[in-house]
Amino acid sequence: MSADVIVVGAGLSGLYAAREVLRAGLEPLVLEADDRVGGRILTQQVAPGIDVEIGAQWIGDTHHRMRALAAELGIGTFAQFEEGEATYELLGSPVLRENEFHAAHRHELAALDQALERLDELSGQVPLEAPWDAERAAEWDAVTAARWLDSQQLPPVAERLLEICTVGILAVPMAEVSLLDMLYNLQTCGVGAQLFAESEGGAQTTRFDGGTSRIPQALAESLGDRVLLGQPVMLIERDETSVTVHCRGGLVARGQHVIVALSPTLASRIMYDPPLPGVRDQLTQRMPQASAMKAFLTYDEPFWRADGLSGQLISDIGPSRMSNDTSPADASYGQVLMFLEGEQARTFGRWPEAERREALIAEAVRHFGPRAASPTHYVDGEWSDRPWTRGCYNANMGPGVWTNFGRALTPPVGPIHWASTETATRWSGYMEGALDAAIRAAGEVATQLRR
Amino acid sequence: MSADVIVVGAGLSGLYAAREVLRAGLEPLVLEADDRVGGRILTQQVAPGIDVEIGAQWIGDTHHRMRALAAELGIGTFAQFEEGEATYELLGSPVLRENEFHAAHRHELAALDQALERLDELSGQVPLEAPWDAERAAEWDAVTAARWLDSQQLPPVAERLLEICTVGILAVPMAEVSLLDMLYNLQTCGVGAQLFAESEGGAQTTRFDGGTSRIPQALAESLGDRVLLGQPVMLIERDETSVTVHCRGGLVARGQHVIVALSPTLASRIMYDPPLPGVRDQLTQRMPQASAMKAFLTYDEPFWRADGLSGQLISDIGPSRMSNDTSPADASYGQVLMFLEGEQARTFGRWPEAERREALIAEAVRHFGPRAASPTHYVDGEWSDRPWTRGCYNANMGPGVWTNFGRALTPPVGPIHWASTETATRWSGYMEGALDAAIRAAGEVATQLRR
Q1: Which of A11, A212, A447, B432 could share a disulfide with B63, CB 3.0–4.6 Å?
Q2: Does any CB of chain B come closer than 8 Å to the CB of residue A271?
Q3: B376 CB within 8 Å of a chain A CB
Q4: Which keywords does UniProt give here (chains A, B) (predicted)?
């Protein structure tokens, strides 16, 4: 088979890159290893009319590309439910409603706000195109985010909250990322430490009618037979003028350029001939996928709303440390999403499902009352076991990675270009970043092929 | 093709595993991606009669398996040259000879000794078979080795020396490994913090006549046509009773078991069907190969010896921070090995060779005098660019990896067994560890096939 541009991976970034390539008047061919499109987007039907979003679920107010794409594809959106009080269960205290909690911890929460302001100020100094060029990059990349948190000497409640919120974004313990990477993650979102606020500072305000999977599915439909499923790419050969992409089943695709729209760690598993430069290889050895898992409790109705609760919990007992109300727009049933992130995903993700379910239901009962004891459905989704994903939400960098290897993240290697949300400069780690990266990669290709 | 046991990788660990398999009365087949055997062992001829060891070079006094293997293969050994004074260039001071340096820094060096004793005491608490079971594992795995060093508040000279020696062993900055991993690295050698002493506490006392490569070459010869070169393994399929291993060129090898004798990061690049468990996959995403490079200056004779110098330098100016006299046993020529490790390898490894050579020669002149200005030969060797290695000396673990994922390092996955020095419990990271891992992996296979 042949095309102008071979795209590896039919996640959001790969599909959107193919669309951009097509719009530039070039012919793309998308090779997807899995038997479905969507990558880290996966809407799963639990029962007729009941869905869960195992993967990406929300967009935010400034996710303009995603909003435009949904509009173009005719996919409606609805607002995340945000009414009512959250519930807090921290440092040995019984569950408190948000107003009680705020009243009890006024001073600690003020200290937290100050810490967030300091984070804002620091993250504002990280140049998104070149985090290694931040004036204090060497200093920030030599320490972990956990060490920074320790150095703040926050009151325990404030420290715990900041840590829970950070792990909620990075999906790894703060000891596993450098301070520079944490600051980059705030800065790439353009909303700074607001990201720690409820609804993640505008990152999680909006959902899609019928589920997020409709977006990659619609993109794939528009590409038609330019998307091939069940084609794991094993080898990419290149010479001066072309690339040859070999799939497991024997399919060979030739093109002028290739866009690898996989997370860096998955991109590293393809064999490249000639081999990639060492700096690029050592970078991808150092960008592990994080550890996130979503567990959904579905009920006949969102009964907590009547109690004035938002369905958002914060807990340091767990198993889940945060939750969200993910009921549908019409509230025709109730659903709580309980996040398992970082060590929570690693610990409880390895439990037998029945035990994990039981522990999560017990937690929901503590926060939302006895009606939480009887969900109609329980579903959870683990990503590290999935061979074509191997971890969510995205990649993280420990100390030394940005400054020593970051320069190799986005530049093409000859005719090989890199997409995936990890290579975005805006909203890296989010669906919006997947589009940002796709536009850049497709732009690189189009510029060269137009010469 | 078929055999009882397929071995992936003809580095020392793979070759030795194949030998052990053969000794157990089973038939091995070794598939090597490269066009040579030896992996991270690479003796390179610079000119007739002049060699350099681009890779592994030394064994130590307690490397009993390596000593026995060399004796069995009829490969002689000789002692590392250890006479004379080292030279020190630290914290803005001009180059001092060892005696001057020790006299000038008596108190700082006493503080260093105390810090090493503390490290010894801590590392003694790490169980080699299960570092995650150390009583303080959670605490030690939540911080970087750099943070531990900071907490010691050592005098600057002592701190700098400890850092240089640590990077000399780990080949990554101390900020990139957890304290637990650093302690594990000391404990696995069984000599504790002696490893920081000159000649690395018995890890670097002895060399091989004719070069280290003679060992894998002799092993490969003894295996005959059971070793196939130029066969990159891309896919390992398994079922209840067999494995099928697919190479790039189309070769298919069937066996009952497979031993993957690659570093964890390279092992992760093979496609497995069915896929490996998520915990194993996330582990290998988090075990990057370190960054080491060796540069050799060859001279007509080891002229520094006549000046009472050992050829060992310590410098915080660099490019090299440590060196060794690697002249041959008969001193028929002189040779200084200048190590580039961690950030030194990353920074200077990316310079054009001529500039790197010039900077290293200038450093040698500072330490060994004007005769160092005119080497007869300069050779350096980089490992991250080599597609079948991708970094030396071995893998390291950042915070959280041992405690969250370490349990998945050595256990077989069905008929798939893991070798490579990274999976050893004794002398992990060294040639001795490659044998230790090979013996374990071959033993697992033999036990099961004898049932």
Answers
A1: B432
A2: yes
A3: no
A4: Oxidoreductase
CA B329 from centroid of its chain's CA atoms: 23
Exposed/middle/buried for A221, CB within 10 Å: 0-12, 13-18, 19+? Answer: exposed
CA distance A381 to chain B (A): 13
Assign residue B201 a region: left if phi > 0, alpha if psi is -120 to 50, beta otherwise? left
The residue of A172, A281, A405 whose CB has the most chain B CBs within 10 angstroms, and thus the best one to mutate to test that interface, is: A281
Return the sign of the alpha-carbon dihedral for residues A180, A185, A187, A193: negative
Phi, then psi, of A56 in degrees rounded to 5: -60, 140
Task: Decide if A24 touches B, using CB distance below 8 A.
Answer: no
Is A385 an interface residue toward B (CB < 8 Å)? yes
The candidate with the shortest Cα–Cα distance to A131, out of A442, A400, A393, is A400
For A:329-358, CB contacts with B below 8 A are 343, 346, 349-350
A179, A235, A285, A340: best to mutate for the B interface, most B CBs within 10 A: A285
Total count of residues recorded for chain B: 451
Say yes or no to pLDDT of A348 above 60.
yes
The predicted-structure confidence for B128-172, as pLDDT tens digits, reads as follows 999 999 999 999 999 999 999 999 999 999 999 999 999 999 999
3-state secondary structure of A384: coil
Judge whether B289 is closer than 8 Å to chain A, CB to CB: yes
How does pLDDT run along chain B (451 residues), one tens digit per residue?
999 999 999 999 999 999 999 999 999 999 999 999 999 999 999 999 999 999 999 999 999 999 999 999 999 999 999 999 999 999 999 999 999 999 999 999 999 999 999 999 999 999 999 999 999 999 999 999 999 999 999 999 999 999 999 999 999 999 999 999 999 999 999 877 777 765 566 789 999 999 999 999 999 999 999 999 999 999 999 998 899 999 999 999 999 999 999 999 999 999 999 999 999 999 999 999 999 999 999 999 999 999 999 999 999 999 999 999 999 999 999 999 999 999 999 999 999 999 999 999 999 999 999 999 999 999 999 999 999 999 999 999 999 999 999 999 999 999 999 999 999 999 999 999 999 999 999 999 999 998 6
- Summarised one tens digit per residue, pLDDT across range B433-445 is 999 999 999 999 9
* Interface confidence: ipTM more than 0.90: yes
- Longest Cα–Cα distance of chain A, Å, equals 67
3-state SS string for chain B = CECCEEEECCEHHHHHHHHHHHHCCCCEEEECCCCCCECCCCEEEEECCEEEECCCCCECCCCHHHHHHHHHHCCCEEECCCCCEEEEECCCCCCEEHHHHHHHCHHHHHHHHHHHHHHHHHHCCCCCCCHHHCCCHHHHHCCEHHHHHHHCCCCHHHHHHHHHHHHHHHCCCHHHCEHHHHHHHHHHCCCHHHHHCHHHHHCCCEEECCCCCHHHHHHHHHHHHHEECCCCEEEEEECCCCEEEEECCCCEEEECEEEECCCHHHHCCCEEECCCCHHHHHHHHCCCECCEEEEEEEECCCHHHHHCEEEEEEECCCCCCEEEECCCCCCCCEEEEEEEECHHHHHHCCCCHHHHHHHHHHHHHHHHCHHHHCCCEEEEEECCCCCCCCCCCCECCCCCHHHHHHHHCCCCECCEEECCHHHCCCCCCCHHHHHHHHHHHHHHHHHHHHC
Q: Measured between beta carbons, which residues in chain A are less than 8 angstroms from residue B288? A: 282, 285-286
Per-residue pLDDT band for A146 (boundaries 50, 70, 90) equals very high
